[in-house]
Amino acid sequence: MEPLSWPDRLRWQQGDGVSSPLILRLCEALRAAIWRGDLQPADRLPSTRTLAAALGIGRNSVMAAYEHLLAEGYLYARHGSGTFVSTDVPDEFHRVGASGPDEMTAALRPALRVSRMADGMSRFAATLPSRHGQTIVPFQAGIPAVDHFPWPIWTRCLTRRWRAAPQSLACSEDSAGFLPLREEIAAFLRQGRGVRCHADQVIVVSGAQQALDLAARLLLDAGDQVVIEDPGYAGIDGLLRATGAEVIPLPVDAEGVCLPESPVADGCRVALLTPSHNYPLGVTMSLSRRLAWLGWARQRGAWIIEDDYDSDFRFQGRPLTALQGLDVDGRILYVGTFTRALFPGLRLGYLVVPERLIDTARAVRRLSDGGGSVVAQVALADFMRDGHFAAHLRAMRRLYAERCQALERALASHLEGLLRVPTVEGGVHLNAFLPPGWDDREMVRVLAKNGITTVALSPYYKSTKVENGIILGFTCWSEAQLNGAVCHLERVCNSLLSAPPMVR
């Protein structure tokens, strides 16, 4: 490969820098070259200095793009030798990326269908006229640092529009949500998460739970099989079983949730995945596993619901590209929420649906609850448009990284050798695994009596292989508060070690 002529194959356009940041455009160009097959597995990339000079951009931008693609698994580095294209990208996906969804064969695109409930709601909607004080203590998980939220700015956004609201705003009844907010969400997801969407695909809901409920209503009938992660988010179980679906739990390893190894899931129509950050383990799905799941769904004509849990809070580098951004044939429904990024009382989230589901999803939403309140949506649209949301996310990533490190240091100082604490790359909690034989549920009860709030890890498992641990949130407390709570945790653990019987 000639280093100086190679950049011509990137189909690179520096552009005006408005529609997409420079680093993101370079990442997209490199990804496209890999997917087209212009760059083959194990190909050596030019040095960052050589590529920067050839493209006429700063070396730091090339270094950042390489680092991001290394994190995503498209590239790998060999010390002293350079940077190379990953060998884990299957040849099938080179062909799919090169040909595009319109040229895929019928064998790769079996028919997709929505649930009977969703189809019935859609037909019925066509006949209708169109109408547009809890005390918080460590270590509670999932609670943002609300004391660092820019309340004066939010208040201005809230009052500015409503001080003299026009009738059209006060009587808005679009079941998909306030259009300017949907436009801002779509722009944020395109640039920040690599999601392929526009405003019409976005449906504003009251949080991730309602988004998951809406997705289940769209896709599942009684008796349908749905794959979920094990361990995984407990709130999904009742929701899925209410549809009459058969739940198939699959184990999570170091690369994310495993694919089915037996014929038990051959008839599965839906998989509910958290590729960016599994809850509660915090595992990020590898690129090869992501591509494997896309291939699995394509072969079976299945849908994927992607719950992008905690993707905003990756402590090193940019948040990884969403699985939806790798989908070439529109089979992923993407779930997101503002609960952890802003504050839980906001009660706003979103569901991004494929093009083919827009009308059906709007119909189901309209007949299920008619749509949410527009009051906060208007304020959030301005909050995002004026750059406050992006600025707040940047500040919270820094703050949460500092607090996570403070908690890790405190646990290493006081409880090393007793609790096993894996390295945390992002999110709003960490896991502390207990010694063999300890009962995490009993541990949680004892800690609660001593003023410490934790959650047991074992109830999140559905299989026989269960890990015992406690989930420790860190986002809502200062370093001093976290140190004090860990000292208290140490005293409780020591008392349990010396007391007969131990918590086992």
List the helices and strands and how they pair.
Elements: H1 22-36, H2 48-55, H3 59-72, E1 75-78, E2 82-85, H4 91-99, H5 116-125, H6 151-162, H7 167-170, H8 179-193, E3 202-205, H9 208-219, E4 225-230, H10 235-242, E5 246-253, E6 256-257, E7 270-273, H11 287-300, E8 303-307, E9 332-337, E10 349-352, H12 358-368, H13 375-385, H14 388-415, E11 429-433, H15 440-449, E12 455-456, E13 469-473, H16 479-498
Helix pairs in contact: 1-3, 1-4, 2-3, 5-12, 6-13, 8-13, 9-10, 9-12, 14-16
Walkthrough of the structure:
The chain has 504 residues and is α/β, with parallel strands linked by helices. It contains 16 helices and 13 strands. The strands form three sheets. The chain has an eight-stranded mixed β-sheet with strand order 3-10-9-8-7-4-5-6, with helices on both faces. Helix 1 packs across helix 4 (91-99), helix 2 packs across helix 3 (59-72) and helix 9 packs parallel to helix 10. The longest helix has 28 residues, at 388-415. It is globular. The N and C termini lie far apart (61 Å).
Give the overall shape. globular
Radius of gyration: 24 Å
Helix vs. strand class: alpha/beta
Q: Could you describe the largest sheet, including whether it forms a barrel?
A: 8 strands, mixed
Oligomer: single chain
Helix content estimate: 25-40%
SSE order in H/E notation?
A: HHHEEHHHHHEHEHEEEHEEEHHHEHEEH
Give the strand tally. Answer: 13
Give the amount of beta strand, in percent.
Answer: 5-15%
Beginning-to-end CA distance, first to last residue: 61 Å
Runs in which pLDDT lies below 50 for 5 or more consecutive residues are 96-108, 127-133
* Average pLDDT for all residues: 85
What count of helical segments does DSSP give?
16
Strand order of the largest sheet: 3-10-9-8-7-4-5-6
